[in-house]
Design a protein that fits this description.
With about 300 residues, the protein is α/β, with parallel strands linked by helices. The protein is about 35% helix and about 15% strand. Helix 4 packs across helix 6 and helix 4 crosses helix 10. The longest helix is centred in the last third of the chain and has 18 residues. About 0% of the residues have low confidence.
Length: about 300
């Protein structure tokens, strides 16, 4: 099967017409994950025999199908629904809520909620990469503003950088390139500095604001700053406008699409935002292929998700 030709869809109708049977979906997924040659999940070195609609691992004697791939494991969702859901997830310019996917796909909202969280979990491969060149760093907090809350819902002692009702988030972005964004324990130097030194190549130039958490960087890497407290936002090529635009987009997506998200799942949403940002120059076809061909790791079950 010529995968690239199969993925040149102009509409959801063309996608459905191409994958109009479960067998076509299975053939496509086997080509994606196994390159057309089934690999035993029990022993990757074993020969594999085809037995009707299953495969048999010679070394272990166990049977398997494409359902043993982590994304599909223990799932009763039809493969056509999976492919359509992944297409919606990657083709939407902005974020996609479980309610929207429920309306688009016809699956239950509970099913789409779990499905989207599984996809977000598998997006994390894109959120761990080395950055180089000019890198902007900044920190923000995700959580509602106390002044916007009803009187009986205001949180005491919540102001500024209080972590009582907010989650600290740290981000790095290579100008013209990719971003890495993660939830952190605090915005102190001992928390931020190791992340910068791990992700930024030593030949890079790091651009930040005046936050004390970056005070130690000049010992290790070229470091330029602007002082926002003194109304200095740009100094030559030094600014943090790129990362601040990312914060604005993330918060707009949370408020506009999800309204509110659980603090236990913020990192998963950040994985999704990073995937969308890092693939912003890809076509929907390319982004679809990029995500589905990089699905690796453990399966996320409903029980694991709700007990986080």
């Amino acid at each position: 099967m010529d995968i690239l030709n199969q993925l040149k869809f102009k509409s959801i109708r063309e996608l459905i017409n191409t994958f109009n049977t479960e067998q076509k979906c299975i053939d496509f997924l086997e080509q994606i994950f196994w390159n057309g040659e089934p690999v035993s999940p029990f022993d990757k070195t074993s020969k594999v025999y085809k037995c009707k609609h299953k495969y048999k691992c010679k070394n272990t004697g166990k049977y398997f199908t494409i359902r043993h791939i982590p994304l599909f494991k223990n799932s009763n969702i039809k493969f056509q629904d999976w492919i359509i859901a992944i297409w919606f997830f990657t083709s939407h310019k902005g974020s996609l809520s479980s309610m929207q996917l429920h309306r688009d796909s016809g699956l239950t909202q509970k099913t789409t909620w779990l499905l989207l969280h599984k996809l977000r979990e598998f997006c994390k491969f894109e959120n761990f990469t080395l950055l180089s060149g000019d890198i902007e760093v900044d920190e923000t907090f995700i959580g509602g503003k106390n002044k916007n809350r009803h009187a009986n819902k205001k949180v005491k002692k919540s102001q500024g950088r209080s972590l009582i009702d907010k989650v600290p988030v740290f981000g790095l972005v290579q100008r013209g390139g990719k971003a890495v964004i993660m939830v952190v324990g605090s915005t102190k130097r001992e928390e931020l500095e190791p992340w910068i030194l791990k992700i930024a190549e030593m030949t890079s130039t790091v651009h930040s604001d005046e936050w004390p958490g970056y005070d130690g960087l000049p010992k290790y890497i070229n470091h330029l700053r602007v002082n926002h407290k003194k109304k200095e936002y740009v100094n030559g090529t030094t600014h943090t406008n790129t990362i601040e635009n990312i914060w604005s987009n993330i918060k707009r997506a949370i408020f506009g699409v999800y309204r509110v998200i659980s603090r236990n799942h913020i990192q998963a949403y950040l994985h999704e935002f990073v995937l969308r940002y890092n693939t912003r120059k890809m076509s929907p076809n390319e982004r679809f292929m990029h995500l589905i061909s990089n699905i690796k790791g453990r399966n996320l079950t409903y029980n694991k998700l709700v007990t986080k």
